[in-house]
Amino acid sequence: MSKSSVRRWYHWFSPEDTPEERRLILKLDLLILPYAFVIYWVKYIDQTNINNAYVSGMSTDLDFHGNQLVQFQTIFVVGNVVGLLPFAYLFPKVPMYWLVPCLDLGWGIFNLLQYRANSYAEIMAYRFMVSIFEASYFPGVHFVLGSWYKSDEISRRGGIFYVGLTLGTLTAGLLQAAASKHLNGVDGLAGWRWMFIITSIITIPLAFVGVALWPGTPDKPNKLFLSAKDLELAKNRLERHGAQLKSLPFSVERLQRIFSGWRFYVLVIWDIFFFNTSANTAAFLLWIKSLHRFDTPTINNLGTIAPALGIFYVLFINFGADLFLGRAGAITLACVWNFIGLIILTIWDVPESAKWFAFSTNYASVAVSSVLYGWANTILRHNVEERALTLILMTAIATSTNAWIPLLVYPTVEAPRFPKGYPYSAANVICLVIMTQIVRILYNREEARYSAQVQAEAINSTEESDASGLEKKPIEENKAVPTVSKEVV
């Protein structure tokens, strides 16, 4: 890569993008990113609020005991896995601008019902339904991103979307602290119950906004803000880079090809390692509570330190993946930072300041997510059905490991020490780095083979044209040779 071609973090567009393409990219950014970010922010206010609610009175009010917190977290994971499976078929078949907002509406309704729970069993049932409706949102957003953006654009967009996770975790702590302080007892409701009401008031209207804004995919677009010219340009620019956009019917032969190649299995294993590199989501809050020095609002406020730093981690790693670190380099850097914190927590008998530092590195693990899923989108871009199926199944299988492994390595009764949990997560970090290098090698090899195949087809087409005495024609745009740069991947 020459010095003139090096892109800085503020270089939003590629030098090869035409003015028309830049206007299209900006329009897509405005339609996709704000909505994806806000919905993910609200979802993670709710997801993380469970931990905040637990240390803010819910455990007492609903008589939680023993390992019921980790079991409560597990039921959410189980619902996620069950809720994901139908979308391997639905993503390419149903317009995404209807599918995603309708699921958001269902999530908002069952999220609201949690405020009225009067027992552990009741809130478990509501939580399961919330997870059913929430399950497909993350892979759904990445499916849409992969339907509109090129490989050197997707990580930054995924990073901006993923900041919703860290900001939601941060906001949950601040809102729960405020609710505990100012709303506790209002209308006879505990402060933790008010949080479910507040997040639902935000969520339900956003579902209707999504029907208007969410652009769907080029094959099944929302044409309210996208013209026919926009759609044609979007399709052409991706097809030039080898993407297949049109959905085809599933068939036994097509499924056999998907499951007989390396992509499905390698991406699933890669994602499993990623899903198991994070410490327990409640560990930081439980450790702060164990110090017995802070009241409930202060515990919730201090718990926002890690996700606040996570915003920086996510943006730096994802922008770096597109512009200067490369995808493998970005994943490795995030893993190193996460590994340092996990090793400190594994040792445990360290000064208190070291533990504050270690817990503050935890969100480096989530920074990997959008780089990994953006890269998976690029690897799978040649077949839209394979992309939908693999994104869903890799998420479902990896998520399913979080349904039972935390029961073994992060049981609530061992909090906040978790002598098995932190070394387990650290081992998965090492495996993730190794697997990333395997993915890089396999991807580079396949892209080189694909490039050679396109070149051969172009040469044969030219020779046939010459032999028939016809006028030479330029190579079609969708046959352009993809560029594979070792520095990028």
Automatic annotation (TrEMBL):
Gene Ontology MF annotations: transmembrane transporter activity
Alphabetical list of Gene3D superfamilies matching this protein: MFS general substrate transporter like domains
Pfam families: MFS_1 (PF07690)
Gene Ontology cellular component list: membrane
Transmembrane segments: 24-42, 69-89, 96-113, 125-148, 160-179, 191-214, 264-287, 299-321, 328-348, 354-376, 388-410, 422-443
Biased composition (Basic and acidic residues): 469-479
Membrane topology per record: Multi-pass membrane protein
InterPro entries membership: MFS (IPR011701), MFS_trans_sf (IPR036259)
Primary localization class, coarse: membrane
Localization (cell): Membrane
Keyword entries, A-Z: Membrane, Transmembrane, Transmembrane helix, Transport
Region (Disordered): 462-489
Family per similarity comment: Belongs to the major facilitator superfamily. Allantoate permease family.
Protein name: MFS general substrate transporter
Naturally occurring in which organism (per UniProt): Hyaloscypha variabilis (strain UAMH 11265 / GT02V1 / F)
